[in-house]
Amino acid sequence: MKTLRIPNLATYLPIAPSDMLLTAPIAARVLFGASPMGRVVQTAALGIYAGSAAIDWAVRVDAKKVDFQASFGLDPLSPPAASDEDRRADVEKLAEALNAGYQPMRIPRKELAEEVDRHLTEFLAELTGQRLETSARVRQYMLAQIVFPFALGAADPLTGDVAIFKNVGVFEPHVIAHEFCHRKGYLKEVEAQVLAYLALVGCGDPVLEQSALCERLDRQLWVLSGRDASKYNELLIEIELREELRSGFEFRHPTEQTYARLVGPLMKGVYDARMKLTGQNGLSDYDEGFANFLLAIEADA
Question: Is the pLDDT of residue 18 over 80?
Answer without folding.
Answer: no
